[in-house]
Amino acid sequence: MASITLDDVTKEFGEGGDAVVAVDDVSLDIEDGEFVVFVGPSGSGKSTLMRMVAGLETQTDGDVSIGDTVVNQLGPRARDIAMVFQNYALYPNMTVEENMSFGLKMSTDLSADEIERTVTETAEMMGIESLLDNTPGELSGGQQQRVALGRAIVRDPNVFLMDEPLSNLDAKLRTTMRTEINRLQSDLGVTTLYVTHDQTEAMTMGDRLVVLNYGELQQVGTPLECFYRPANRFVAGFIGSPSMNFFEGEVTDGTLVADGFEYDLSERMQANVGDRTAVTLGARPEDYTLSDEPTDNGFEVVVDVVEPMGSVSYVYVRSVAASHDETFVVEVDGQQPISEGERLHAHVAATDVHLFDTQSGETIHQRELTDDAENALSKPLENASAGAD
Amino acid sequence: MSTQTQTETTTTSETGVARLRELWNDYLPYWFIAPMVLVMLLITFFPGAYDLYLSVIEEPTFDVFAAEFVGLQNYATAFGRGGALHSFIITVTVVVSALALESVLGFGLAALVAGVESERLQSFYRVLFIIPMAVAPVSLATIGRIMLNSEIGVIPYLIEATTPFAAPAFLSEIPLLTVVLLDTWNWTPFMFIIFYAGLSSVPDTLIEASRVDGAPLWRRYLHVVIPYMKPVVFVATLIRLIDLFRTFGVVYGLTQGGPGTATQLVSINIYEQMFINNSPGVAAAIAVVYLVFVVAIANIVIAKVGFEGVWD
Predict the structure, then answer these.
(1) CATH number of the structural domain A243-370
(2) Where in chain A is the domain with CATH 3.40.50.300?
(3) Distance (Å, rounded) from C-alpha B32 to C-alpha B37?
(4) In the predicted model, what is the mean pLDDT of residues A83-109?
(5) Is this prediction's ipTM beyond 0.90?
(6) What φ, ψ does residue A279 adopt, rounded to 5°?
(7) Is B213 on the interface with A (CB under 8 A)?
(8) Furthest-apart CA atoms within chain A: distance in Å
(9) What is the DSSP-derived secondary structure letter of residue A60?
């Protein structure tokens, strides 16, 4: 078990003028036993960051520490880590048992008997004891995934590193394994770094999220903090599905004028906006209502496409007054009858609105929450994954 | 034509075209493989059979039935006076040592070049190490004779100039080793390029997984990389093995099997029996034994190691 500290870590690929900055000056403290998810789109540097913790990449600048040791100069072998790869990276020439015992043989002094016992115990825990004599080629994707996890667990390392371990699984299996990894992590209490581009995995798995974009740290916080208190427009758009809707506008006399609608800002909003004029309004699809009657701050929309999901429907609508064809998403109750081409009034309550500085993308106004939700955010959640079990 | 077809055609009394069609349809699979069988007969079976025929007659004649049958006498001559056994030993020595050297060197070079960071440098090395393979055997032999010459050769000169040792007379004192080394120089590139391609096919994550598992470099190669490349290693070795058994030009050009019979490969022995001693029967006898020998070895290797598909 160990904490992990990243101190001004930078990674550049290439030399001189062609250099690409993959990770830009990231500092981060990860506590012992914590489950931290690195999340971001492709090319955000999340995998590179993890690979630097693994020792598979060397940072251009900055320090990586595991426990109290600065590990900059140490190879993966000396860092006492175990890693699960996206394509599992099982050794195809070895049986499951050999795959799982390889790390123990290479990096410990355990006797053959002890290794065999440890491997058998772990295999039983993972439910793969019947597969021990098979080679990876004979296993299904889900079974390979379990073996890859088992191979990491059997090492009893200081740190687990998981690089998109679920992205090669089908959707149903992914959900099952998500829960299972959560359970394993809380049972074992090993510090875990988990890389994903899937915001559902990020929300449901981590104690804390590290949101990255273009190699820069966007926000570090619990999943709900990132969801309700996004630090900037990128985080607001990335966390949550479907994504938040954004409308760029101009603030004049306490009113935000966007293409297609106007929105009267509340006093608190106006105070937060200050003398800015270029402001972006953000509101999540589930915070909109669609009704037949006009409302304050509402505007008329025409329904473009309806995607029924069962319990809810995603309705893509376009402002009637807008000069463009772009639609935005509204999530409505699945039983609300809505058909394409229908004209309705869209409305979002002042309490649910986020405002962003259009130039910098910084959040300048956060939505309001109920007191209970607000209190839950102020202290880090004990185990954000508990709800998913 | 089977009797069944005959009875059918007579009872239904059809026209000739219909009979042809029936013949075609009844034996359809055989017609399809017939061209291949014909080619095989012409290029494999006929020369083999003719070789076997030559090995059991006194002397070839225009009228094949007029030739005098001598039983195994040519074989006795081949393994007695003909020195066939000696040639087999020489050949096996050359094949085994050259194959070992070429495999090890080829793999080492491939691993080194694959480890070069710069793309441009890597492709430069790739081209550089392939060049020897492009040299024709006779040119190579001629170049070798000049470079290794005790009087005017650059290699003996360099050895004497840069080391305290006296240069050996390559072609007279250590001819067998010289032959092996020259073949190694010529054919290591072949192993290099196949192993290089094989190394490139090993997934990065597999190597990373073994690094995370704590395996030191040599164990990564031993337990992960080489087992993954097993099919490639096998195919390359098999091809080179069979090819080495056919070596002729370089060695003949370099030493003509000499001095004495020190480098007399089976291929050279067969050539000399045929064209210098004018004993086609003896040459054919050695060739028959050699054919059986090489085919047996190739089959043992295939059976022992086995063709295995690439890992999924």
Answers:
(1) 2.40.50.140
(2) 4-233
(3) 10
(4) 90
(5) no
(6) -130, 140
(7) yes
(8) 78
(9) S
Distance CA B35, CA A185 (A): 66
Q: Which of A154, A110, A111 is nearest to A132 (CA)?
A: A154
Percent of chain A with pLDDT over 90: 52
Instruction: Please give, rounded to a whole number of angstroms, the shortest distance from the CA of A70 to a CA of chain B.
Output: 18
Judged by CB atoms closer than 8 Å, whether chains meet at B206 and A91 is answered as: yes
Q: Which of A48, A56, A115, A193 to mutate to test the interface with B (most CBs of B within 10 A)?
A: A56
List, in order of start, the domains of chain B with CATH numbers. 3-55 (no CATH), 76-305 (1.10.3720.10)
* A137/chain B closest Cα distance in angstroms: 6
- How many Å lie between the alpha carbon of A202 and the closest alpha carbon of chain B? 23
- Output the six-digit token pair for A351: 């309490």
For residue A133, the SS3 value is: coil
Does any CB of chain B come closer than 8 Å to the CB of residue A115? no
Q: What dotted CATH number matches A4-233?
A: 3.40.50.300
B interface mutation test: which of A48, A58, A77, A154 has the most B CBs within 10 A?
A77
Three-class DSSP labels, chain B: CCHHHHHHHHHHCCCHHHHHHHHHHHCHHHHHHHHHHHHHHHHHHHHHHHHHHHHCECCCCCCHHHCCECCCHHHHHHHCCCCHHHHHHHHHHHHHHHHHHHHHHHHHHHHHHHCCCCHHHHHHHHHHHHHHHHCCHHHHHHHHHHHHCCCCCHHHHHHHHHCCCCCCCCCCCCHHHHHHHHHHHHHHHHHHHHHHHHHHCCCHHHHHHHHHCCCCHHHHHHHHHHHHCHHHHHHHHHHHHHHHHCCCHHHHHHHCCCCCCCCCCHHHHHHHHHHCCCCHHHHHHHHHHHHHHHHHHHHHHHHHHCCCCCCC
Q: Digits of tens for pLDDT over chain B (312 positions)? A: 444 555 554 555 558 888 888 888 999 999 999 999 999 999 988 998 888 988 888 888 777 777 788 888 888 888 888 888 889 999 999 999 999 999 999 999 999 998 888 888 989 999 999 999 888 888 999 999 899 888 888 888 888 888 888 878 888 888 889 999 999 999 999 999 999 999 988 998 899 999 988 888 888 899 999 888 888 888 888 899 989 998 888 899 888 887 888 888 999 999 998 898 888 888 999 999 999 999 898 888 888 766 554 444
**What's the longest Cα–Cα distance across chain B?**
95
